């Protein structure tokens, strides 16, 4: 069994790479373009005169891959000459570890880009079986276009670590996983080992992002979900966050920030989102409040979660009704537009910044306001009401 990196509708499926294989991989949500996309990025970067970022060091991971790409400075001559605005999101000098990035079209990648645009150094944790594909794609330039930041520079990744967040330490790893050929080329990929490796390589971090989810029986109604499937969903999608915080807090600088991703199914019925995934998201939100108290009191770390709306990720597509959920959101949300992954990423950058210094234990909705609706206004029952619609 392997951990997954899922997002979009925060799905994880039982299909390999698309977002699952026992434990789907991913945090995916296709970055969808819309008219305000450029403006959104521009606002984030307007005051963040980024300093020179480190190269991937060859996307350096435990596999020792090296990159021939030169360092790209994120501060352009034009941006250096302009004064910053009054409230910049400035994360220069900060280091972020984002767990759950396996390609360039999901929430985790969007969060990494927003943090990088604000000046943070980026470290990634990638599901072990997907590591080789991800690093190869990076090395061959398949993600070059999506790595471009608002100022024209390129997001640099200092290091990519193999990670399976379902396992806390080597003693937890079953023999069949240890001998699995998909894990054979990597080492030190349990949560404790990755935290130790980050400490050895970089000393400390300031930002921890959890973008992991998996439910091997997500397509089953709750009444048909097995105990094993239910507990697997809880383990990969919610306890993995507890484990990451437990092992990374010792290397997090005081005043740091931790962020996870949740979904409205934690508190509302979403038919088709089964297998215990709604329960896992509810647990994640409850844990966010408790962890905010414990991590805040003991370590001065803020803990928040973002409840994101539906996006077309590979993980979500595997469930089969993501298009329907997006159409439903367009018809019923207060803001009638498609949600973009950048909007989630920019919210994460805000939460990680000093501008959010008093926000902790919170569920932040980034879903065009859909969470506020009590009914679906596209129902024929409401045809007689004068319900305003967006002008396109």
What does this structure look like?
This protein has 392 residues and is of the alpha/beta class. The protein is built from 11 helices and 7 strands. Helices cover 31% and strands 12% of the residues. The protein has a 7-stranded parallel sheet with strand order 3-2-1-4-5-6-7, sandwiched between helices. Helix 1 (37-45) packs parallel to helix 11 (341-352) and helix 3 (107-117) packs across helix 11 (341-352). The longest helix is centred in the last third of the chain and has 23 residues, at 277-299. It is found in: Plastid, Chloroplast.
Q: What can be said about this structure in brief?
A:
By secondary structure, this protein is α/β, with parallel strands linked by helices.
Structural class: alpha/beta
Task: Please compute the radius of gyration using only Cα atoms.
Answer: 20 Å
**In percent, how helical is the residue content?**
25-40%
The chain-level mean pLDDT equals 83
Q: Count of helices?
A: 11
Query: How many strands appear in the DSSP assignment?
Result: 7
Q: Which spans of ≥5 residues are poorly predicted at pLDDT below 50?
A: 1-39, 45-80
Strand content: 5-15%
Order of strands, main sheet, comes to: 3-2-1-4-5-6-7
Overall 3D form? globular
User: Quick one: biggest sheet?
Assistant: 7 strands, parallel
Q: How far apart are the termini?
A: 46 Å
State the order of secondary-structure elements, H for helix, E for strand: HHEHEHEHHEHEHEHHHE
């Amino acid at each position: 069994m392997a951990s997954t990196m899922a997002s979009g509708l925060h799905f994880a499926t039982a299909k390999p790479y698309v977002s699952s294989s026992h434990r789907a991989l991913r945090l995916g949500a296709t970055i969808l373009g819309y008219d305000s996309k450029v403006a959104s990025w521009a606002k984030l970067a307007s005051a963040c005169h980024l300093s020179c970022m480190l190269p991937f060091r060859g996307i350096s991971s435990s596999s020792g891959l090296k990159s021939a790409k030169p360092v790209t400075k994120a501060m352009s001559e034009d941006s250096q000459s302009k004064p910053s605005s009054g409230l910049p999101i400035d994360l220069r000098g900060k280091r972020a570890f984002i767990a759950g990035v396996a390609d360039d079209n999901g929430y985790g990648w969007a969060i990494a880009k927003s943090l990088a645009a604000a000046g943070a150094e980026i470290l990634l944790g990638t599901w072990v079986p997907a590591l080789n594909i991800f690093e190869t794609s990076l090395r061959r330039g398949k993600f070059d276009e999506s790595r471009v930041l608002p100022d024209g520079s390129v997001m640099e990744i200092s290091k990519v670590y193999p990670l399976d967040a379902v396992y806390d330490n080597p003693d937890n790893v079953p023999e069949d996983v240890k001998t699995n050929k998909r894990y054979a080329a990597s080492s030190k990929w349990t949560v404790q080992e990755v935290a130790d490796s980050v400490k050895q390589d970089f000393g400390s971090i300031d930002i921890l992002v959890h973008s992991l989810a998996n439910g091997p029986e997500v397509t089953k109604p709750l009444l048909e979900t097995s105990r094993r499937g239910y507990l697997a969903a809880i383990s990969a999608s919610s306890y993995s966050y507890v484990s990451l915080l437990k092992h990374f807090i010792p290397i997090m600088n005081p005043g740091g920030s931790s962020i996870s991703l949740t979904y409205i199914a934690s508190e509302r019925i979403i038919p088709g989102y089964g297998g215990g995934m709604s329960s896992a998201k509810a647990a994640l939100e409850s844990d966010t409040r408790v962890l905010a108290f414990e991590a805040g009191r003991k370590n001065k770390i803020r803990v928040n979660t973002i409840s994101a709306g539906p996006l077309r990720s590979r993980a979500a597509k595997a469930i089969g009704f993501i298009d329907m959920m997006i159409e439903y959101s367009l018809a019923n949300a207060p803001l009638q537009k498609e949600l973009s992954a950048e909007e989630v990423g920019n919210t994460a950058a805000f939460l990680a910044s000093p501008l959010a210094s008093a926000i902790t234990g919170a569920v932040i909705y980034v879903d065009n306001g859909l969470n506020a609706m009590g009914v679906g206004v596209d129902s024929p029952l409401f045809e007689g009401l004068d319900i305003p619609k967006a002008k396109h």
